[in-house]
Amino acid sequence: MLKQTIIREFSNMGHRTLGRNFAGFQNNDAPARYVLQPRGCLRIALREGDVLQVGSGALPDPIALAVFGKGGVRIEAQLGLPPVRLLAFADFDHAELTGWLQGNGATIGTALPVTWIEALAEPLILRAPQACDLVLVLPLSHDHLVSGKTVDAVEVSVKRAGPGHTLPDPLGDVRDEFTVDRATAQAYELRKGETLQIIDVMGQQCSDFQAFRMAGLDAGVESMIDGTTTRSMVRRAFPGPGLFDKFFDGAMAPLLQVMQDTCGRHDTFGLACTARGYEERGYPGHVNCSDNISRALAPYGVVARAGWPAINFFWNTWIDGHHHLQTAESWSRPGDYIAMKALDDLVCVTTACPDDIDPINGWNPTDVHVRIYRPETKITRAIAYRKKENAPMQISQPSAFHPRLAPLTDHFAPARDLWAPVSFPSFGTQGEYWACREAATLQDMSGLRKFDVIGPDAQRLLQLAMTRDIAKLAVWRGTYALMCDESGEVIDDGTLFRLSDHLFRWCCGSEESGTWLTELAAMHGLQVRIHDLQGALPNLALQGPKSRDILSKVLFTQPHVPNLDQLKWFGATVGRLGDRDGVPFMLTRSGYTGELGYELFCARDGALPIWDALMDAGAELGLKPMGSAALDIIRIEAGLAAAGAEFVAGADAFEAGLGFAVDLKKAEFVGHAALRRNAEAQRRKLVGLHFQSNDVPLAGAPVFKGERQIGEVTSATLSPMLGHAIAMARLSVEHADSGTEVEVGLLDGRMKRLDATVATLPFFDPTRERARA
Q1: How far apart are CA 312 and CA 270, in angstroms?
Q2: Burial class (CB in 10 A: 0-12, 13-18, 19+), 131
Q3: b or e along 147-174 (b: 16 or more beta carbons within 10 Å of the residue's beta carbon)?
Q4: Strands (E), 283-405
Q5: Rounded-to-integer distance, Cα 618 and Cα 606, Å
Q6: What is the pLDDT of residues 313-360, one digit of tens each?
Q7: Is the preceding omega at residue 762 within 30 degrees of 0, hence cis?
Q8: pTM of the model
Q9: Distance (Å, whole) CA 733 – CA 656
């Protein structure tokens, strides 16, 4: 009878009877999932129309239920569910619940009045008729304790109602969650080790945040996040997942560690919005975050302020070239969030900014949702990766080689959707560099994109897309090539390998390659399939003069494919570890260092055995792991172009220094006409610059001849081999001859000049003899 009452009272008038599952709901978002532990307590913030399901099957044990409206007021009576029993706080883990009740001004006794739901033969399903906080408790009765009968944890699911309420799935075991209504603020407690997730429900909504050390408040000291200190400690505008990932107080002690960030655009410069700020724009009396923060923190004894220094999550700000603080609409999308682990017991406050008179909230303030996860919840470091701006979000993941890399370094950075090591402290960037030049290095390059192009028209498609003559490519051979658009600008570069007459593998830098190939195939009606291998083919780069010696210890090849001695520059083969039954992998003689080198592509379950075998075989030959910092030095010395540096929008393939990969004699390909025209009247050229000092200019630094700017730096580094700074630069052809004296401007481009001499690329080994060895 009680089961029927609950379903009736929690169902809005006119709604159909709820079934046993969530099939057929109008909102197709996956439900949020929680686990209610024995003696545990869950408080879940529900919106009008949200549907909650307790259990996935029969409920053999009693469940206790309590419902709170705004401000912690009990509302069971309004729903026809009066409390029928007192549940002693001593009988369940109540600390978080009583803390929340106290924070909402409720009187706390020794017991909680609850609606008692006996065992059920089916899941309990509830629909919320209004916004409320629903508390579920799985108690252990005296009978359980005496008999020793076990009580199983219960699954709880929430299906969110209404379009636009995009809440991501929980990251783990939720201790507490609530919604901060637009134009309000809420204070709450966060215990050391717990993880806080602040979610932008509708997108483009700013949320001001501040955190205080609880011990400091108890002592009358407001020890809180300091934006200036944080920026100084992390050496950027705001911390993010990775090495520099913490918010600090004024004493330079960390308060919170950023674990995940799916937006990547926040503010630590501006105040939370203030009454004065609205008054001066003609809006006296406008609700504002600073006053909301002061009111929310008042119960904790925090002194009110007219303007609160806050961490302004999802607020899109930047410093322009004239040192002005600029702002625009937020970059956050519905469901974007930031997750932070508490490094001490904290009192926190979160707002949903009310600003509706400028674009920072997309002109429409909305709600912010907060979740708090228990300390035992394992939350990995991650950022959001999107193949294109409008593509679905992917959370960055560790690569298949991460179990071997993580013990060696904490310094990882995003490489598309994967984490890749930047450097290894045991050797340092310089040690990794010299290992690649003199011995060998092993680097995780799994962030590369791989596409298989398969079918009778595969060659025809690639002839259209590539700047090289693919018809000349033999089986088990590869070539470096470009994809260009109609104007001759580079879409992507990479290495193409022919594995059979109608099967090619394209290893490249971005997913744009797959999109471009798919569009071309459809445009020309070609019989071909573009297969995105995604994360199915992790790969390593084994580079350096001793790389062949290392491979010879572990490589087995069948007689029908090239062996190690037959594998020439840009060759490919299939090998195994040790013998014919060993772990298989594709092996290519390629790389991004200008050294003798190889790349190995394998299945995920073969990644660790291959890493281990290579490291063991290379131990006596000086093999070391290498990160992206050393690779960048090496590729600049080798004159190798990079996306976003040498080839960018507005520069064609010749201006990007990639003319050697353009075959204008072959049949038409996309961009052929533009490149042929530009080749006859080239305006800019990529060259090298040798400096007379160790000052390294930044990318984008202007290059001058006298008082006239003639180009800009695209990449620069301090060369360990040459002993001075070097750079790649794009110059007007009139000043691109070797030996030309130029200057690179620093500071404002004129207050400091670095003398440089133009040189050809690469900076050494111009015929690539080391790679061809």
Answers
A1: 8
A2: middle
A3: eeeebeebebbbbbbeeebbbbebbbbb
A4: 311-313, 316-319, 325-328, 337-342, 346-351, 368-373, 382-385, 394-395, 397-398
A5: 18
A6: 999 999 988 889 999 999 999 999 999 999 999 999 999 999 999 999
A7: yes
A8: 0.78
A9: 13
